[in-house]
Amino acid sequence: MTEPISLTRSHVRHELRQRRLNVAAVRQVTSRIVRITLTGELDGFAAEGPTDHLKVFFPDPATGRIATPGFHAGGLGLSAPGTVISRDYTPADHRPGELDLDMVLHGDAGPASAWASRAAVGDPLVVAGPKTSKLVPDGLTALVLVADESAFPAAARWLRLAPPAVPVTLLLDAPGAPDDATRYFDGVTGAQRATIRAGLELESELRAMPIDAGTVAFLAGEATMLVPLRRYLRRELGLPPQQVIASGYWRRGVAGLDHHAPIDADDPD
Description:
Elements: E1 11-13, E2 18-28, E3 33-40, E4 54-58, E5 69-72, E6 75-78, E7 85-89, E8 91-95, E9 98-104, H1 111-118, E10 124-128, E11 132-134, E12 142-148, H2 152-161, E13 168-173, H3 178-182, E14 194-198, H4 202-207, E15 215-222, H5 223-236, E16 244-250
């Protein structure tokens, strides 16, 4: 096997602050993904890496107010009465004065989906982060992206931020018609140079792909779905950690999963 190259990812730190925002627009991107455009306290906002994420705080349904932890006018504690309800999201895109968050609609069982399904212009949200941006790896020669709907924004960020000469293969895991999933990437900068496949058997597709020393595989989505893919890349092929970036954004049956947790408890890095 070819010796691995460095694939170093530079880090950029940002000021960590809570930003009070309001919905400026709501747009359906696919049958299950809605794009929420936010405006408000976005001065100095920066998100420079493909895997950046925000902490998004939602209103408590019981009080209608957004409770956030930290230092507030009254000292250390909550900003408002109620329960802190938060989830992590990748910023789909941002422009001066605007921030896009893409949210998967899956009924009212989850607080984010319930909020997003009813979001209207003027509704408030609070976001914090990103705290750090990890940039695209130096020395990248090819990119493999495996993503379910929760990770489509991160996959789009990889497409936009990877060097234009780097070939990309994008494998999408999504329910419903493949065309509905691929429609998410219409107009995304960099998508025109990517091979995009949806509705196929992911492990078979991955096993059929050539992986060299400069290839980085980004795997993100439902944690249990990613386990055999990561084991193939890390254990069967013996790829080093810098070539396999795997993150469980959610786990079936688990509320508020910490995406920093290992996706495979029996085989953590």
